[in-house]
């Protein structure tokens, strides 16, 4: 008797399918504070949930960036206190705080190095957001600020150190400058196109105003416990603040999955000519803001021999330049970024002419007033140029993309990457400007030649902006 073996029923049944992972709704925060789906262009989602989440992230982004900018510009005041007093022959008359006796050229070199390192670091900081996530990198970048703050605390107490050691420590302040690029790239993902100008303007202004706060707070700290103790404590002032901003970012900020991607879109943003044209314009606006902010207190001391004005009122330039930045974003939302940018450059040129007259007439009030107008124009121009970037890439996406969701996201990511690249290149203005002042002062005995160069640059940038982004018939007209 034979036995027939019947195949197991399981062998003929369709293979079991693993249950699909649950899909989170837009705006839901998952493990590690990652938001998997984010669509601020969906007006229903934006009104019900998106705006509140975006605002929360914006608030703590502003705080972290504010501390970063403050640390970046700590040296703009510290070098004034460390500078010596010299007679007409260059002989030392009196040392500065803690026995230091920096010359005007050395002070401007310190400022240039700190600004230059910050500009260089903006490039890797931009790539850090898509690699690590906006919230995660905000925590790391805030903790990195402990290096320059503790370094400043140590180095100013040792006037016998070689100048290159001072430059090395001052260069670490660039960690604070790098924060801007990652913060702006991150926040650009959170907001819809129609509100990007205002949001990016607020984010940038909150950071920029850190320059003014540092320039106002540091002289007060220097006066506590004697000049020597106060100069060292200028670094310690921001240690607890950096730690606090890191903790708050860890607890309250979010990472966006849309922003976490292959850094390829950022690399592909470099292929667009407009990325580099906007970087050039940003040298004229932000480069001028950060360069003038760093150098302004030193110029007040060197040109007019008024260290009291430099320490007491030098912060006002950075203050007015910071608070005017959101105005540039708001005006650009209504009028178009290119229109506002052209106007800003023309005002900067006129203010530069008046500054020359102030130096030639040895009129501190005229010089000071002209720089206040110049700072306002740089702030407005900063806001307007940043508003132009996403608008340009939206137009590029409409022209070169296929209209699908993946294509739209690709160009959004390129825009975010371009923001970081442009901010990095633009920040090099802060490196160049102090050196141009240094050269003019040492070669011609006056900063007037430097101011004349800047006037010419502002006029050329106004013409370039008009020709590419405003002229009737231009492919990117009125972005």
The third-level CATH topology is Growth Hormone, Chain: A
What number of domains?
1
Biggest β-sheet: strands ordered side by side in the sheet: 1-4
CATH architecture: Up-down Bundle
State the helicity in percent bands.
over 70%
- Name the structural class: mainly alpha
Span between termini:
89 Å
Number of strands: 4
CATH top level assignment: Mainly Alpha
Silhouette: globular
Helix-strand string: HEHHEEHHHHHHHHEHHHHHHHHH
Binned strand content: under 5%
Assembly category: single chain
Q: Average pLDDT value?
A: 86
How many whole angstroms does the radius of gyration measure?
25 Å
**Main beta-sheet annotation:** 2 strands, parallel
Low-confidence stretches: 1-14, 16-22
CATH superfamily membership: MFS general substrate transporter like domains
The number of distinct helices, counting runs of at least 4 residues, comes to: 20
């Amino acid at each position: 008797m034979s036995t027939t073996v019947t195949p197991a029923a399981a062998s003929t049944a369709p293979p079991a399918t693993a249950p699909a992972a649950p899909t989170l709704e837009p705006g839901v925060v998952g493990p590690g504070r990652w938001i998997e789906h984010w669509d601020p262009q969906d007006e229903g989602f934006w009104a019900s949930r998106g705006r509140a989440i975006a605002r929360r992230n914006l608030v703590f982004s502003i705080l972290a960036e504010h501390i970063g900018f403050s640390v970046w510009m700590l040296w703009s005041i510290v070098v004034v206190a460390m500078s010596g007093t010299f007679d007409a022959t260059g002989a030392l008359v009196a040392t500065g705080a803690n026995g230091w006796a920096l010359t005007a050229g050395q002070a401007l070199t310190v400022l240039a190095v700190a600004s230059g390192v910050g500009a260089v670091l903006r490039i890797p900081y931009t790539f850090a957001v898509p690699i690590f996530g906006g919230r995660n990198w905000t925590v790391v970048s805030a903790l990195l600020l402990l290096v320059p703050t503790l370094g400043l605390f140590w180095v100013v107490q040792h006037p016998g150190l070689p100048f290159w050691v001072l430059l090395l420590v001052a260069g670490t302040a660039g960690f604070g400058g790098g924060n801007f690029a990652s913060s702006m790239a991150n926040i650009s993902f959170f907001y819809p196109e129609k509100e990007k100008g205002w949001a990016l303007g607020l984010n940038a202004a909150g950071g920029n105003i850190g320059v003014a706060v540092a320039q106002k707070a540091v002289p007060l700290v220097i006066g506590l416990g004697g000049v020597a103790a106060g100069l060292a404590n200028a670094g310690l002032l921001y240690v607890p603040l950096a730690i606090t901003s890191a903790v708050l970012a860890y607890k309250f900020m979010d990472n966006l999955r849309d922003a976490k991607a292959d850094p390829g879109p950022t690399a592909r943003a470099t292929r667009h000519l407009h990325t580099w044209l906007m970087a050039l314009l940003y040298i004229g606006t932000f480069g001028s803001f950060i360069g003038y902010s760093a150098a302004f207190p030193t110029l007040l001391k060197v040109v007019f021999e008024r260290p009291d004005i430099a320490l007491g009122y030098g912060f006002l330039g950075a203050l007015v330049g910071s608070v005017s930045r959101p105005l540039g974003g708001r005006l650009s939302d209504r009028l178009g970024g290119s229109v506002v940018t052209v106007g800003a450059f023309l005002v900067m040129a006129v203010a530069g002419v008046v500054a020359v007259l102030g130096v030639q007439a040895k009129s501190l009030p005229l010089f000071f007033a002209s720089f206040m107008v110049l700072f306002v124009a740089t702030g407005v121009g900063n806001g307007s140029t940043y508003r132009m970037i996403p608008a340009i890439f939206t137009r590029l996406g409409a022209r070169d993309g296929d209209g699908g969701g993946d294509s739209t996201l690709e160009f959004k990511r390129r825009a975010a990457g371009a923001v970081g690249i442009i901010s990095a290149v633009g920040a090099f203005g802060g490196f160049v400007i102090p050196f141009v002042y240094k050269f003019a002062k040492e070669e011609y005995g006056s900063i007037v030649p430097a101011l004349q160069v800047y006037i010419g640059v502002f006029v050329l940038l106004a013409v370039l902006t008009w020709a590419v982004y405003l002229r009737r018939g231009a492919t990117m007209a009125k972005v």
